[in-house]
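Our consortium's second objective concerns turning raw sequence data into structural hypotheses that experimental partners can test. To show how far this objective has progressed, the report includes one record in full. It was chosen at random from the queue rather than selected for favorable results. The single chain below, 238 residues long, was entered without modification.
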Amino acid sequence: MCEHFVARAAEPFPLGELWPLAERLERYGLAGFGWGAAWVGSGGRLEGHRSTLAFRDDPGRDALAREETTSLLVHLRRPSKLSTLAMPDTQPFLDPDARFAFSHNGDLREIRSWRERYKADGRIHGRADSEVGQRWLEDGWSPGGHAPRLLRELHECMRGSANFALLEPDGSAYHYAGNPENPVFSFRLGPIGLVSTGLYSIDRSVFRLAAPSATERRLVRPGRVVGLDRDGTPSPAS
C-alpha cells in the first residue's frame, strides 16, 4: 500500500513545497512505515534520503524542506509484508552508479529465480520484492531515454501489480501505471507538474483528500508510462 510520486518544474522549487502533499498521501494512503526521496541536486547529481520513520515523524524532513530541485521522487511506504521494515527495503533505491533512482508500489510475483541469482552475487540486502526489480534495472540499464521501455519490460518479466517511479540525473522523471488497485494520475500544483498514485482508492479521492488545489487532472491508463517534460508537462513516454 505504498504511495509515490514524481514531480518536475521549469524553475527550482524547495522540496518543502510538496511536503503537504506527501503528508496527506501518507495519511490517507495508510502509509507511515518509512519513506524516502530522491532529487536532482545543484551539481546535477542525484541526492537521496531514506528513513524507517514515518514521514510525519522524521525530523530530517525539516532540513530537506530547504533543499531546491527541479525534479523529485518521493516514496511513502506501507509494505505488503511487515517483516520487511528495515533500511535495505526502504525506498527509493539509488543505483550504485547514481544513474537513476527507482521506487515500486504493488507486488512483483515472478521474482524467485532473480532473487536467488542476485543473492548469490551478494547484491540482495533486504527482503522485499522491490529490491529485486532494482537489481534487474541496474543490469539492463542503458542511457539515452530507454527508461520507459525498461519499466514496461520489468513488469512483463516479473508480473504482478506494479506502479514504478524513476528519476534520472538530467531531471527526466517517469511513472509507469500497472497496479489496478492503485490508479495513477497526472496533475499540476502551481508551476510543478506531478504524476502520483491515488491512495488505493479506485476513484479520484486523491484530489479531494491529498491534492485539492490540483489542476490539469488526468488519469494515466494502465500499461502506460508518463514522463514529465522540463516544465512539468506530462506526456506519453515511448
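The partners drew two points from this record. Residues 3-236 form a domain with the Glutamine Phosphoribosylpyrophosphate, subunit 1, domain 1 fold (CATH 3.60.20.10). Helices lie at 19-28, 60-64, 112-120, 129-140, 147-158, 205-209. Both points have been shared with the crystallography group to help prioritize constructs.
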